[in-house]
Amino acid sequence: MASMNYRLKTERLILRQLELNDAPRIQQLAAALEVARNTLSMPHPYEDGVAEKFIGQVNEEWEQGAAYVFCIALKSDNLLIGVTGIHPRELHRQAEIGYWLGVPYWNKGYGTEAARRLMQFGFEDLNLNRVHASYFTRNPASTSIMQKNGMTYKGTMRQHYIRFGEFMDVGIYAILRSEWDAANGAADSA
After folding, report:
1. What global pTM score does this model have?
2. How many angstroms separate the Cα of 81 from the Cα of each of 6, 118, 135, 169?
3. 116-138 burial, b if ≥16 CB within 10 A, otherwise e?
């Protein structure tokens, strides 16, 4: 898949490629334990230099078409409030999405809005057939984001990962292109 420069918009948000000058803001928001404990690999504490390394890594994946990791910014002032990404498997026309938001931006609908736009990008721009997401089952907010975007529960992998010394149950939600199209009034395009 060729590299592209995507800039996605919603009613309140802009999703754009991460830039090195986003590093201080990422570090500020990602430093919260509440954020790190709902992700699989975000370090805590979030040390100096980690955000810069993360941005370099995900932008390299972007150039290779292996993943598209976006800054979630408020449209009103371009303030970074979180990060979201889609990791396609081109051969199977499927992808996993993920997201995190800084604590001050929780419970305001931003996660749902960003995930919805990312799923639209997956189906329309990347021509995917299936999008899925996984979450720690102790995080009902992530479940809500998936449900509000039409994804359906596929199961739970019990004690699938260890995070901060604790075995974590991981749930999975998914949506097919046909379900997305039906819910969003799209004509069959396959």
Report:
1. 0.93
2. 18, 16, 20, 27
3. bbbbbbbbeebebebbbbbbbbe
